[in-house]
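From the methods appendix. Each design record in this collection lists the tokenized structure first, followed by the designed amino acid sequence. Records were kept in a plain field format so they could be parsed without special tools. The example shown here is representative of the layout used throughout.

RECORD:
FOLD TOKENS (258 positions):
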């Protein structure tokens, strides 16, 4: 009889302890995901050999001529998207500054360094940023801050294309890019939404800001081809020479293609 009671007590203690454990596990705090801001400047992943010396390349991308941006009427989800959009395919500042041009040194190839984890958001039915440049092997977390249905549709040849619906409850989807390529993004729900992901194998690249400027630091001394790409204006190249401890300034000028 004593043995039976002892066994019953033991069983009760075991049940109590087990219940306590599972309760604790369910309360385990969820660690927040850390992301790198999409606007983080390109890190100099290719280090120069000791004593070789490094320099800086700065510059601007400028539009010559007059340009009036195109307005696009919003046809649905106006409560989130607004009534009208400025078409982001070409945005020119008051002094001709071109935003969202991608600059890279085309004859230096990436030899190492960690890929990035970048963020591409959808805000008021626009891709933010409109142009995202990142190194080969990087992952992009595509967010939907709008709380309405978007559809992220990529157009690429070297990287596997994807076409993913992103309803309001799907806050984040993740895609990895393994080949250098310029990739177009569209939303099948909102026809005016367009964006670009530029995957580069160059260790030195940048995207122009609102003032049309770019900057690359710690570039090993040497002569290089500097490429610029813009989604509407096309591509062009200039030769640059980087000298130790000096800043090389470059200006790219574009005109509307005829
Ligand atoms: Cu959309």
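DESIGN:
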């Amino acid at each position: 009889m004593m043995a039976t009671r002892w066994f019953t007590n033991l069983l009760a203690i075991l049940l109590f302890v087990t219940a306590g454990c599972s309760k604790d596990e369910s309360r385990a705090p969820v660690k927040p995901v850390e992301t790198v801001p999409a606007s983080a400047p390109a890190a100099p992943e290719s280090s120069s050999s000791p004593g070789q010396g490094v320099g800086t390349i700065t510059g601007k991308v400028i539009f010559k001529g007059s340009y009036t941006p195109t307005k696009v009427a919003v046809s649905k989800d106006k409560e989130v998207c607004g009534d009208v959009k400025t078409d982001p395919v070409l945005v020119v500042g008051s002094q001709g500054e071109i935003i969202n041009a991608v600059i890279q040194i085309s004859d230096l190839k990436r030899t190492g360094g960690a890929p990035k984890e970048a963020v591409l958001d959808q805000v008021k039915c626009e891709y933010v940023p409109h142009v995202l440049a990142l190194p080969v092997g990087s992952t992009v977390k595509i967010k939907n801050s709008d709380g309405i249905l978007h559809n992220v549709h990529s157009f690429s040849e070297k990287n596997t294309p994807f076409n993913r619906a992103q309803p309001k409850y799907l806050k984040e989807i993740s895609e990895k890019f393994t080949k250098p390529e310029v990739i177009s993004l569209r939303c099948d729900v909102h026809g005016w939404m367009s964006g670009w992901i530029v995957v580069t194998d160059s260790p030195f690249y940048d995207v122009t800001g609102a003032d049309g400027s770019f900057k690359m630091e710690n570039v090993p001394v040497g002569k290089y081809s500097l490429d610029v790409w813009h989604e509407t204006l096309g591509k062009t190249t200039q030769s640059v020479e980087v000298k130790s401890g000096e800043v090389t300034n470059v200006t790219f000028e574009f005109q509307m293609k005829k």
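APPENDIX NOTE: The first strand starts at residue 54 and ends at 63.
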